[in-house]
Amino acid sequence: MKWLIVVFLFFSFTTLSLTQEENFMTLVGRAVDFQISGDYSQALKNYEKAFDIAHNKMIRYYYNAARCASMIGDNTKAIHFLNKCIDLGYIDVALLTNDEDFKPMKDKNELQSIINRIEQKKSAFEKQFVHAKTIALTDFIPFFENEEWGYVQKNTKRILVNAQFAQVSFAGHCLVIWTSGESYFCIDQKGHLFIQDLTTPMTNEINVETEDIAGGLMEISPMPDIPRFVKVDSTKGFTGFKMDKYNNILSASSVFDQYKFLAYDDIIPQISHPMKIEEQWYAIASKKNQFGLVNEKGVSHAKIGFEYQKLLPVQECKDAGWFFFKDKKEKCGFINVNGEVRLYGLVTDEAYSSHESHKKEEHFDFIISEVNGEKLIIDLKTISQKTDPFKGELLAVDYTYSSNQCILFKPKITSDKIVAYYFLIKGVDEKLYYIGDDKVQYLVN
Predict the structure, then answer these.
(1) Helix or strand (DSSP H, E) at 114
(2) CA distance linking residue 29 with residue 38, whole number of Å
(3) Residues sharing a CB contact under 8 Å with residue 437, sequence separation 6 or more, in sequence order
């Protein structure tokens, strides 16, 4: 016997006492040891003793017990334990028929009744997803009822699949439905049921580390071997900054506040983020501990002068020229180069700073702000609210996404692949619900 089934997602002994759980696990541990050593008779005895303590919902134990029974020629017990697996949601015919431990039964055609029952169950599951033939998978929204999951239709909230599964996913190329903690199936965009082999490496996965740049590799220009900044004395009349041919700030006036730049162990002007605004180069600089925009000649921007405690460009925004700011009143918001202000007082310094420090590891273009006991999710792409303010706890962020293949577990992908976000919230009344980024609520329980 080459392999034991070891894949599992959930493990719970909520109905067992601690002593029962320990005894169960001790017996299962012994069974596994005997199974690995090839003593299938002793392995089966220990599995059966464990089942006398608890009829748990772990498919792998019943499956391995069936394998042991098959290897010692007790086909009746093997069939019994395989039926237990099916009762718990097992539907992987390919794994079963390719398992060498069931070869003695396969040679005698003893497995056919089990295979027939699995095929019937798969067919019944597929019929329940008939709406996938006419409704986009990204419109299948999970809902939770009586400790089980199903699907409703986006916007209409009509039930598409009754709640009956251990767990369900949001859609990319397919839906993933877990019939138990260890058994699952997938539904594709034509409503067909299939099982993705967990042991087979999946190709064409979404690359979360790099993105294609114009169909090829990004060309990185060589940097000149010179210090990053050169300080210039303002007494000579220079109050702005100068740039090199790579659009990096090379020198800046001493009128700007200064700080110690550890990379060069030097005191340098506090100026950064050069950007082009209406054919002029500007940079964010600090004077007298106030931040603002200044052009190369040292002239302040007409709409964003030196009046902010903090000023940072919002690089995620689709429209260039938006900045996060914190003003003298300690209030935060967003401002653009036209002087338009949004979400003033609704975003916090802590929320934006947290996003800035983690955005390299994350793929979300939004922040979660909390003001006066209410949370608000803000879309940085559009500088707008993704949700109305809510009280409670944000438990999870889910999403539908575009992909050319089925991905079993929620992928970490680039934001351009995301179709829609869904935020799982636990309200102050302990109820769970999803809020879509269209602000529609979907009740979970």
Answers:
(1) helix 112-128
(2) 14
(3) 379, 386, 387, 420, 421, 422, 423
Quick one: pLDDT at residue 218? 31
Amino acid of residue 83: N
Q: What's the CA angle centered on 205, arms 128 and 363, to 5 degrees?
A: 95
CA distance 334 to 340: 8
As a residue count, the chain comes to: 445
Give the dihedral sign, CA 120/122/123/128.
positive
For the chain, what percent of residues have pLDDT higher than 70? 80
Q: What is the enclosing helix (H) or strand (E) of 32?
A: helix 18-37
- State the Cα–Cα distance between residues 207 and 52, nearest whole angstrom: 47
For 219-249, how does the pLDDT look when each residue is reduced to its tens digit (9 = 90+)?
A: 333 433 334 455 555 656 788 998 888 888 8
Residue 9 has pLDDT above 50, yes or no: no
Nearest in space to 167 (alpha carbons), one of 183, 140, 148 = 148
Beta strand 193-194 with 184-187: parallel, antiparallel or unpaired?
antiparallel
Q: Rounded to whole angstroms, how far apart are CA atoms 431 and 435?
A: 13
Give residue for tokens 């916090």. 348
Contact between 196 and 205 under an 8 Å Cβ cutoff? The reply is no
3-state helix, strand, coil in the chain (%, to 5): 25, 30, 45
Start-to-end CA distance of the chain, whole Å, equals: 44
Q: How far apart are CA 304 and CA 312, in angstroms?
A: 12
Locus of tokens 């964010």: 284
* pLDDT at residue 12 is higher than 50: no
Helix (H, G, I), strand (E, B) or coil at 393: strand
Q: How many CB atoms lie within 10 A of CB 51?
A: 18
Q: Is the pLDDT of residue 216 over 80?
A: no
**Distance of alpha carbon 426 from alpha carbon 391, whole angstroms:** 9
Task: Flag whether pLDDT at 133 surpasses 70.
Answer: yes
The helix or strand, by DSSP H or E, that contains position 201, with its residue range, turns out to be none
Return d(Cα 114, Cα 91) in angstroms, integer. 10
CB–CB of 256/233 below 8 Å? Answer: no
pLDDT at residue number 247: 85
pTM flag (> 0.85): no
CA distances from 68 to 33, 60, 95, 341, 387 (A): 12, 12, 16, 70, 54
As a dihedral over the C-alpha atoms of residue 358, residue 360, residue 364, residue 370, rounded to 10 degrees, the angle is: 20
